[in-house]
Amino acid sequence: MIEKDLDTFHQLAHSLLKAEEEQPVVKPLSTDKVMEQLQLHLHDEGLPDHELQELLQNLILHSPRTATRGFFNQLFGGRHGKAILGELLSALLNNSMYTYKAGGPMIGVEKEILRQTSILVGYGDQSNGTIAPGGSMTNFMALLMARDAYLQATDHPGVPDNMILYTSKESHYSVPKNAAFAGIGRQNVRFIATDDRGRMQAAALETQVQEDQKAGFQPFFINATAGTTVMGAFDPLKDLAAIAERENLWLHVDGAYCGSVIFSEQHRHLVEGAHRAHSYSLNAHKMLSVPLSCSIIVTRDPKQLYQSFANDADYLYQTDEDDWNPGKTSLQCGRRNDALKFWTLWKALGTKGLSEMVAHQFFLAEVARDYIRKHSDYNLYSYDESISVCFNYKDIPPQELCTKLYEEGELMVGYGQSHGQVFIRLVTVNASNSKADILNFFQQLESFVARHWKTSPAPS
Ligand SMILES: *Cc1c(COP(=O)(O)O)cnc(C)c1O
């Protein structure tokens, strides 16, 4: 029976890939029609196979195409065949990653990814880590470890209401959300100013920490960002590490977006000082073309993971040593195998191949910035050494332009804002794109504007 379903999968995959080739972006269905039009409602009676297949076909052909040369909307995109291969096998095997008994060699697959990632961060091979469902969750784990490390050291019975954490104004929204989850409180998050390139200002951080100490607060955590969500900026890790060491604060690097620069010889310098941080996270589902989700966190001191996440459970941990039972270092109980897809890709390409993938994204961003600089109808708002290219075209309001491009099924690209300026954000994270694809983006944008904005709009 499953053989037949897998044949169906092949047919559906084939039709999707063919459709993507012909039409990289689909016109969205309106939300008031989608339930009826795609027959999404569930019923008492089941469907025969041929009807189900038709329905699935319709559903997938109307879903956003995130791996094509028309998708620049999010911080992920691209789809490496080898990673998909690993992912499909994970689904088929359905191992759970809490014990060696249930995960078998898949635990080794994950251990190897974590070991190699630790080495690349600069922690050596004696540190540890885990994989969690997304960068928000790996950030959460970092915060919990920092909280527990701090409380252990100061011997508090619970979370006092004056523990303070620091993050930049341009950092990810998971930081204040996680502060609430962790019992620290959103009001105890200090948002530190950034410079014009979107990087946290170390001097402003230092001043704020000292003020807080004077006022009787308890600073304990700095969240640094490697690749801010809008500008793709890298906080100055060396400066932040110096402050963290001086003030005895936990330093976490949120590298969900661009922490994968550790794979590239050429770009690793962007996170220089990372080895001095206490924890480091990256999303392989962003820069490394692995399907959602594959978020890795490594900690310099492996004990911290156990301190925050280990729990004894006789019904679960019945064989093997802790080292091979990663349920003891995990946020979850049952945990899907997010390791195999990344491992399959890494095996196939080697570290060198991953390095080229990352370097290519920076190359594509350079192509885009170059094009923008050479065409006077454009304004550029972002900087070198970032794979987020922020710009406006002919003073057209970016919100309007991005929305119309989406509604017409032309291009998927979003807008962002920094220091009060709103702009289009082109993300060159899809390494299967070529220079021609990036140039094509601009051509498509220009001809779309020529068709839809009849008169040249007044400058804003
Ligand atoms: C994407 C992103 C996150 C969140 O990661 P998810 O996997 O979407 O939860 C966190 N921080 C930064 C800087 C990001 O870009």
Account of the 3D structure:
This protein is of the alpha/beta class and 460 residues long. It has 14 helices and twelve strands. The chain has helices at residues 2-22, 31-37, 49-61, 81-93, 100-103, 105-121, 135-154, 174-181, 202-214, 237-247, 303-309, 339-374, 398-407, 435-452, and strands spanning 71-72, 128-132, 163-168, 189-192, 218-225, 250-255, 279-283, 295-299, 378-380, 388-393, 412-418, 421-427. Strands 2-8-7-6-5-3-4 form a seven-stranded mixed β-sheet, sandwiched between helices. α8 (174-181) links the parallel β3 (163-168) and β4 (189-192). α6 (105-121) runs parallel beside α12 (339-374), α7 (135-154) packs across α8 (174-181) and α9 packs parallel to α10 (237-247). It starts with a helix and ends in an 8-residue tail after the last helix. The mean pLDDT is 95. Bound molecules: pyridoxal-5'-phosphate (PLP). Pyridoxal-5'-phosphate binds next to α7. Residues 75, 134-136, 139, 172, 174, 225, 227, 229, 254, 256-257, 283, 293, 295 line the site of pyridoxal-5'-phosphate.
